[in-house]
Structures are given as C-alpha cells and as structure tokens.
Here is the input.
Amino acid sequence: MNSAEWLAYYRQNRSDRLPIAWDVPVQITPALRASVLRSLARFQLGESSAGTSLRRAARTTGDADFMAAIELFIAEEQEHARLLGRVLARFAVPPLHHHWSDWLFRRCRHRLGFSGEITVLLMAEIVALKYYSVVRTGTADGALRGVCDQMLHDEKFHVRFHCEYLHRWLGRRSPVVQPLASWVFTVLFAGATTVVAWDHRSAFLALGSSADEFLNDSWQNFQAAQTAILTGRPFVWSRTLGRAEAGPAWVAPRSEFQQAWALARQSARWLWTLSFQPLVLAGPARH
Ligand SMILES: [Fe+2]
Ligand SMILES: [Fe+2]
Here is the structure.
C-alpha cells in the first residue's frame, strides 16, 4: 500500500475498534496473578511512548501522508498502553515506570535514524504478536482477552506497515548494503527475542506455553517479515494460527559449496545425536 492508502487504513481503524467487556467479573488464577501481571506491566511500559523522536524522524521523509500515518500509528500504540493500563488497574496492579528492558529498547531506537527506529520497532511488533497470542489463549479473563484481540489486530498491520517501509528503504540501497542490513536485523532480532523469551519464561509457563514455543513461533514470524522486506510481498499473519501464514519463504541463492556445507552440517548433527542414542536407550542393564 502507498502512504495515502496507509493513512486511510489508520483512519478507518481508529473509528472501528472492537468492543471490550470491561464489566465481566475478573477471572485470574493465583499462578497467573503471580507471574503474568508482572510481565504484562513490562509490556504496558513498552507500549507507552510519546513518539517524539519517531515523529521528528518521520519528517525527514518529506511525505505528508506518511507523516500523518505515523501520527496515527503512534496513537494506536498509545491506545495499547491505555488499554493495558486499564487491565493492570482491573487486577489492582500498579504500572511500572522504569524497567531495564524498556530503557534498552528506547536507547536503541533513538540513536539509529528513522529506518533504524522502524527496524527496532518492527522487532518489538513481531515479539508482541506471539506474546499477546499466548496471553490471549492462556487467560480466561474476558476483558484481557478482548484487549489482546484488539492489539493483535493492530500489531499485524503495524508489522506490514514497517515491512513495506523497510522494503522501499532497502530498494534504494546498494546491493552490498541490502544483505548486510538484513543480517544486522537478524542478529538484533536474535538478541531481542532471546532476552524476551528468558525474561518472561515464567509467564509463558503459567499461560500454558513456554519460552521455547515463544522463540520458535517468533522466528517463524520473523522469517515472514524478512521475506516481506526483501520481496515486497505483504506480511500476512493469522490470529487463528497464531503465526504468519505459510507462504513461499525467501531462500537465498546458494553456491554448490554452500549447499554441500549445509548437507555436511546436517549429517554431522544427526551423527552427533544418534551416536548417543544407543547408550541412552540401553541404559542400565535390563533383566
Ligand atoms: Fe502495540
Ligand atoms: Fe505495534
């Protein structure tokens, strides 16, 4: 979509919000109360941003429709912070004002220029897709589920919005910069998603998921986003599946040496695994 179409989308989305059942009785188990609310408070802090530096950086694009779309994007994120704030109040949990992960996230965002800022934001959006899916599935509270539904609807379009911008940005760069930028993005994502998986591991367990599942599905979502950035195909994510819809993944062209190396590594991995299997299965002598 071009900037005018994104602006139209954000305007429509602003006036077409899902109803949230704030009046239903609070439902939360002691296990969820102990770990998930603390975790949600960190995400609530992450969603809260005045958007000052993003707004300032967006002006450098000189695209009025894009700047207006960014304005509405910031407003949607602030709405997420407001909704999550109301969820915390519903469970009588005070909001956080500082957390090291939020400090690090903001430091990274504010020093990288507009495309860098969009890149860091995109990582947070991809992480949010899986995180809010797990919360949506693992909780019985009607209001919290409604908030997750609304945020998931918004975030999947945020990912597409950022991917399309980065596709245009990469398209103006030299063929040397393109794979390099993509590699840096992948490394940053590996760091960010691993930190989130570890930091919120007890919440994932309480919600019936795990840090492993979070990491695995987030990587699949990342792969779809990277494909969208490199090819210009739209990012499509399904709430029903809880992950990006399977599509033809972008596969880097590989030389014969690279193909042979990949096969050798695969065989070596199987050799390593199966070498120990007889010892483990045999175990202590059986009678
Ligand atoms: Fe958000
Ligand atoms: Fe978002």
Notes: The longest strand covers residues 237-238. The pocket of fe (ii) ion (ligand 1) is lined by residues 47, 77, 80, 128, 151, 155 (CB under 6 Å).
